[in-house]
Amino acid sequence: MTTSHSGAGILRFNSPYPFDETVRHLQTAFAERHIKVFATIDQQAEALAVGLSMPPTTLIVFGNPKAGTPLMLANPASGIDLPLKVLVAEPAQGQVDVYINATQYVIERHDLPTALATNLAPVEALIAHVLGDATPARA
């Protein structure tokens, strides 16, 4: 499995699993680690509700206030990127991509102390592990 990075600070992981299974794996991993899921948004269903079509796309909003609060205390504007989000999309039949903001991007974007990266970096490792130890790539 491969991943990529984008100049915009987005990591893309290729999932080895079908779309629905990828979403379930992520939700299960969050629950097992007591990471709160604040919302799961079925963007495909929302598009259909207004007469538009799009491939399967789901956004999961998640986080841990114990990890995120220190970032917001260091710079309240970092709250625009918190809680964290993971986007699962199937842009082509059988191709499932998973996107997250890169830890370094969030730290640099909000001029946060580099030591706070340890509050976010485990998410990258968790996503990679859930997806079969994928290496991220730029989106």
Number of strands: 7
- Strand share of the residues? 25-35%
Distance between the termini: 14 Å
Mean pLDDT: 93
Tally of individual helices: 5
Provide the CATH architecture.
2-Layer Sandwich
> Given the C-alpha coordinates, what overall shape results?
globular
**Oligomer state of the chains in this structure:** single chain
Total domain units: 1
In short:
The protein is 37% helix and 29% strand. It has 139 residues and is an alpha+beta fold.
Can you give a write-up of this model?
- Strands 1, 2, 3, 4, 5, 6 and 7 form a 7-stranded antiparallel β-sheet that branches.
- It contains 5 helices and 7 strands.
- The mean pLDDT is 93.
- The chain has a single domain (3-132), classed as TATA-Binding Protein (2-Layer Sandwich), CATH 3.30.310.
- It is of the alpha+beta class and 139 residues long.
- It starts with a strand and ends with a strand.
- The longest helix has 14 residues, at 19-32.
- It is globular, with a radius of gyration of 15 Å.
- It is 37% helix and 29% strand.
